[in-house]
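Q: Sequence in, structure out?
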Amino acid sequence: MPLEPTWYDVTIRLLLTIFAGGCIGINRGEHGQPAGMRTTILVCLAASVSMIQANLLLNTIGKASDSFIVLDLMRLPLGILSGMGFIGAGAILRRGSMVMGVTTAATLWYVTVMGLCFGGGQLSLGLVMLILGIVVLWTLKWFEEGLKQDCRGMLRLRIERDALSEDEVRGLLTGAGLRVKSCAVRYSPQAQRRYLRCDLRWRGYVYDTRTPEVIERLARHEGVSRLSWEP
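A: Exactly. Output:
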């Protein structure tokens, strides 16, 4: 970090900051995330300008020879990083058992650090971060889609009379590759009905949201009068 950056240095840093923030923001924007290109550019610019400001304040002309000892200008970029924690937390949403926006929050924190690199004059390091960020957000997405993950779902059945026993239901589910984590049964002697609630687990692809075929078969079973499936 030069002690006296010129306007040429500042311009190059800001232009690279805008370019890098925009490249990362395109990925978030095309996936419909709330933090799109404008947000990532602004976050990256704020971090970059904070480092440029700290750089400009490092000038020791006219100050005591030991002025570096009392200077604590790094508090400014550190404050930027701390503040990003609140913005990132706001991008994370929880809907039931699903947590969304974690990647967007991590991206905002990432572009903040990238902006600090550009603003501090570490242009090569900032460009390396840009390349790595693009690789992670674009390339690894296709790799992630090919991975299987643990999936879960809640199955609720209303069975008339003795059409299906609990063991038969378990056999159908396990035979289809689903694992019954727990199963609760409630009887209604007056209506001659049984209510089953099964917590299921299975291995599936990340973006495969199709209903398992065995659930469709149970829904068509003559003894099942009501079925509820919540993946």
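Helices lie at 7-30, 37-56, 67-70, 75-91, 102-119, 123-145, 166-175, 213-220.
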